[in-house]
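From: lab user (bench 3)
To: helpdesk
Subject: output format question, protein + adenosine-5'-triphosphate

Hello, I'm new to running complex predictions and I'm not sure whether the block I got back is the full result or only part of it. Here's what I submitted:
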Amino acid sequence: SERTLVLVKPDGVERGLVGEVISRIERKGLKLVALDLRTVDRQVAEEHYAEHAEKPFFGSLVEFITTGKVVAAIVEGPRAISAFRQLAGGTDPVEKAAPGSLRGDYGLEVQYNLVHGSDSPESAEREIKLWFPEG
Ligand code: ATP
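Helpdesk reply: Thanks, we reran it on our side. This is the complete output you should expect:
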């Protein structure tokens, strides 16, 4: 069994889609092992998206993620990292995410794509430590 860091981003929280995200995680058979509604420090946001620091959208992405509440969760299960990314769908909600996925069903714009899920075991470990430093 594996752990992944899931975020419902501010667009998902504002639109009232937290229940929908959690419901799909649970229906898939994955388990919540931590769940927290919070606002994000600039420092945590910049560290979370450090790999995109040089991208033109970095500033606006950090701004977006820090301006509203997010839900941070640790999700566990067999192949949890891939399983959640399947539930989320591709990064671009129109061009990449299939209908039936969270982004495919509810998203229109790349930046406002509702959720985040770790993309590898290394990212999951790093992100879980960043978002839940208390363990
Ligand atoms: P996440 O890391 O949030 O799960 P991802 O792994 O599907 O998303 P990445 O390529 O790592 O996608 O991009 C991280 C996030 O940055 C995306 O989820 C999206 O919110 C934002 N993003 C990516 N590309 C763009 C872009 N061209 N314009 C604006 N925002 C973008």
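A quick orientation on your result: Residues 63 and 95 are 24 Å apart (CA to CA). Let us know if anything else is unclear.
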